[in-house]
Protein: Trichome birefringence-like N-terminal domain-containing protein
Amino acid sequence: MKSQSTPLPQTPTPTAAPGGGGGGHEQPVAPGGRLAALLPRGTMARRRAALAALLVLLLLAACTAAAAAVTVSRKQRQRHHPGGASASAARSCDPFAAAGAWVEDGSYPLYDSARCPFIRDEFACARFGRPDTAYLRYRWRLDAPCAQPAFDGAALLRMWRGKTAMFVGDSLALNQYESLLCMLHAAAGPAARTTLSPPSGKIDPSSTVRFEDYNVTVVYYLTHYLVDLVTEPHTGRRVLKLDAIDQARDWLAADVLVFDSWHWWPRTGATQPWDYIQVGDTVVKDMDRTQAFAKALHTWARWVDANLVQTDTKVFFQGISPSHYRGQDWGASPKKTCMGETRPLNATGPYPGGPIPQQAILRGVLAAMAKPVYLLDFTYLSQLRKDAHPTKYDGGIFGGDCTHWCVAGLPDTWNVLFYAALTAGQGHN
Structure:
């Protein structure tokens, strides 16, 4: 089947302002021509003086209109493709762009994980006996002049009344989703009525929690690659289709969409869930994974622009979440992993292991889109949190997990900053 997408709408033709022209530049009229006919009768000197005054007024009006046009154009460019000095100033208090540091805060954690019914075993570090608790008490403190963001779960529930928020992606999206559920559940209070669907909590391909008192629906939709992964009925071949996104029709009902991808792209061997990659009519056994990731992102971006550009749907994309399997990334022994780590990296400069290269690809794709998409760029602040992974306290699911994050824990900070972005309305209609 082909993706059911609506075409990208045509840009409307600008309408002339009342009393103005149609937007083009008229040729100036020489003195004594049409303008002279509009002047009052009198002596030649009076007529020339009046003509000069009228020309001055017309010149001032033209300059004002031109300045207004430049202002509107600049605002449009900054809204869709932020850049330049003005955008830099605005980003200085973007909670994901501003500098900060991890500090201990006695008001953390923001909820008691033992009272949250939505945490899966793989993230439930306290449930499975993690003995240290310092990882729960860290808050990301933004440097001045940025105001410190705070999370108000009750306000968010009211903001989302009657709406659906959907997290679309792999288990890192699930990590943030379950953290947000716990934060909302704590804010709604112990008497809050919630409905889990399906009741088993099985994700196939989605799972939904509804906060009944607020008519708020929060959905997790599982897709490892955003683009389609299909099994051919006759051959049984599993094919990753980089230019197909039929599953996206399931996302259209959401009012807020949070996407993520990359974690599964480098997989090989038994954990690789596809046998072939297809682009158009070309089918290959394998290709450079970063190139494949870029092609899939462009497919996703085209779908968003074709279907959501004229809607009020707010669209976010997670920054790429880091893993901590290589100690040299944070200045430790190459044999070191996140196992046994109990403190963040105390760093104010660049992360020793450097940026994640695919993050630049993600930024480039988002910058070229017509639909404003807000990047939840938590990569750097998460790179510093080598202490926040489940490690062996995950119910025995992974054994030594340095990829996912404990809940409660680091994903709560992601959601504090997500809430700040939502309430600031940055990057959206």
Notes: The longest strand covers residues 216-222.
